[in-house]
User: What shape does this take?
Amino acid sequence: MDNEALFFTIFNLAGKNPALDTLMIFGARFLIYLTFLLMFVLAFKGGAKERKVIILVLLSLPLVFLIIAVIHLFFIEPRPFISYQFTPLIPFPFINDPSFPSRHASIISAIAFSYYYFKSKWAPLFFIFAIWVGVSRIYVGVHYPLDILGGVMVGIVSLIITKQIVKFLKIRFGLG
Assistant: This one.
């Protein structure tokens, strides 16, 4: 199944079940904010792993945006609702904003993989959030499946580079 066919397989579920539409709209618009809130609560209430996670995420996010900006210099994919001229389930004012890769998927993947990297007991919850965000961005009509996969890859690459930078700085400046 190609990218467009998978997109329409998921997107065509919209409008058939009001409860599912509500869950997907929440996932596409608001879950990322709840994720950040939970991440900060866990950093203050949790243990050392959760504090390390938030530091790694905060250090990796500028790199996420930098990688996406570089990708946009070479590759601009219109969003599905632009290409196929339909109204997405969520308001989307940035019509000329490229679809690939998904910023939401990049950010939430960086978060989920950070929890996984530090072997936090919260990692499965954040992976559920990442899947929910990814599927919901397709469901509401603002991303193709490959946009989500690209976003996951950007999140992972940003973490790998961030870890290497931190490692270099620790060695260079003798930090523990």
Q: What stands out?
A: The two ends are 49 Å apart (CA to CA).
